[in-house]
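Final report, Chapter 2: Outcomes

The project's central promise was a pipeline that accepts a single protein chain and returns its three-dimensional structure in a standardized token representation, suitable for archiving and comparison. That pipeline is now operational. To close this chapter, we reproduce one record exactly as it appears in the project archive, with the input sequence first and the structure output second.
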Amino acid sequence: MSQESITAFRLLLLTGQRVEEILGARWSEIDLERRVLDIPADRLKTGNKTQRGHVVPLSEMAIALFAAMPRVDPCVFPKRGDPQCPMPFRSLSQAADRLCNDPQQPFTRFTPRDIRRSIKTRMSEIGILKEIRDRIQNHALHDVASKHYDRFDFLPDKRAGLDGWQWELRRILADAPLTEDWRKWLRRFVKELDNDLPARQLARLLTL
């Protein structure tokens, strides 16, 4: 698998966004100082209907991935042979197929789009409220107030949710046990935006 595909898969895991929205990202949409990916309406599945963009908070791990990538072309993931266009979906789908067909890799078959559904399920397990999960993944919101909210609303809540999800990914990568203490502090982390005690406790639990 190419390094570009590896990075794309990692960003899908860290952000929970649609595959096309990550593969189509442009450097002009990324603000590392503000720690956001600001996707314009014309690149969103819901954009034609809502005429609103979608602001995705970036966790530390996501920022590190973007910061390590070369900024040669307007596209973050340029198409091979045509750097003005983004990497096509089939490139990532083929990479997943090769991974799943490798007898040395213990992977159950999956598609890139499966990642988004899995993340939403796991976010629920760590205590991120459905309203915030929906806003993180830019699902259609049907009540009148939601239809007319400013697109920067709920940014702190979305950031806490994605930072909490990053902590859970760190636990998985560290092969640390899923204990009740971990569940307790993670749920507290995603609900208490101004309290850094849960983050310190999570860091301590990962070092046990």
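Archive annotation: The two ends are 33 Å apart (CA to CA).
This record, like all others produced under the grant, will remain available to the consortium after the project formally closes.
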